[in-house]
């Protein structure tokens, strides 16, 4: 290893510089030391006595308790109302789905019935056309002795007339049924609208009732606090610490 001898002169210079800086710091602290604090004596506190302040604190505490209770009740009521509204909404959606499904089923049933009637009509006409082959085409030909062909033609004509009347009757019944369904749907919609209106009115009445109860409670509390203050205030006036 190599041993380097220290420079004594450089060390002394550094020590002197450090000592001078420390002395300057101490002198600066001594010059900038804060002096004594002098305050003008004054009276602290308000114009109310300690008993009145305690009373005001108690009143504020009681009012805060009632307010918290009222807020909690209002929150519970609002939560229940929201849950009931959500349930009613879901029920209405399910009811509408069921009604649409029922209408769809009825329409499909009517379509199948119409297709069956059309097919039956087509087959009946085809059969009657087969029976009409070989029969006289006009009524100008007078037949003295009607044969079996004229009787068959009359029967086929009467049968066609009965089919047309039956078809017209069925169409009229279908129209009446559609009209009854439309009236029933309109009646249901009116009932639902009236139920929603009644629910809204009941909700408004409950809100007004809650506000009325809160107002009455507040008036009773204020009257009680006024009486309490009137009882305590004369005693406070006779106390020596009361300043007016």
Automatic annotation (TrEMBL):
The keyword Coiled coil belongs to this UniProt entry's keyword annotation: yes
InterPro entries linked to this entry: EPSTI1
Keyword Coiled coil: yes
Coiled-coil region list: 91-118, 160-194
Highest taxon in the source lineage: Eukaryota
Keyword annotations: Coiled coil
Entries under PANTHER family matching the protein: EPITHELIAL-STROMAL INTERACTION PROTEIN 1 (PTHR22529)
Protein name: ESIP1 protein
């Amino acid at each position: 290893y190599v041993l380097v001898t220290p420079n004594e002169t450089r060390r002394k210079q550094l020590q002197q510089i450090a000592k001078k800086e420390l002395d300057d710091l101490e002198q600066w602290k001594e010059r900038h030391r804060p002096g004594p604090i002098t305050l003008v004596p004054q009276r602290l506190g308000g114009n109310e006595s300690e008993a009145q302040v305690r009373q005001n604190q108690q009143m504020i505490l009681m009012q805060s308790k009632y307010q918290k209770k009222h807020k909690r009740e209002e929150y519970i009521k609002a939560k229940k109302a929201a849950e009931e509204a959500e349930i009613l909404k879901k029920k209405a959606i399910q009811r509408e789905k069921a009604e649409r499904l029922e209408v769809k089923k009825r329409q499909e049933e009517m379509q199948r019935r119409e297709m069956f009637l059309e097919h039956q009509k087509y087959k009946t006409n085809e059969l009657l056309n087969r029976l009409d082959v070989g029969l006289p085409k006009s009524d100008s030909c007078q037949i003295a002795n009607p044969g079996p062909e004229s009787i068959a033609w009359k029967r086929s004509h009467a049968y066609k007339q009965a089919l047309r009347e039956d078809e017209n009757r069925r169409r009229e019944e279908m129209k009446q049924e559609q009209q009854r369904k439309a009236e029933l749907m309109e009646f249901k919609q009116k009932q639902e609208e009236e139920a929603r209106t009644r629910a809204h009115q009941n909700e408004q009445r409950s809100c007004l009732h809650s506000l009325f109860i809160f107002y009455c409670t507040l008036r009773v509390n204020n009257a009680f606090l006024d009486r309490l203050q009137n009882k305590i205030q004369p005693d406070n006036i006779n106390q020596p610490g009361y300043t007016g």
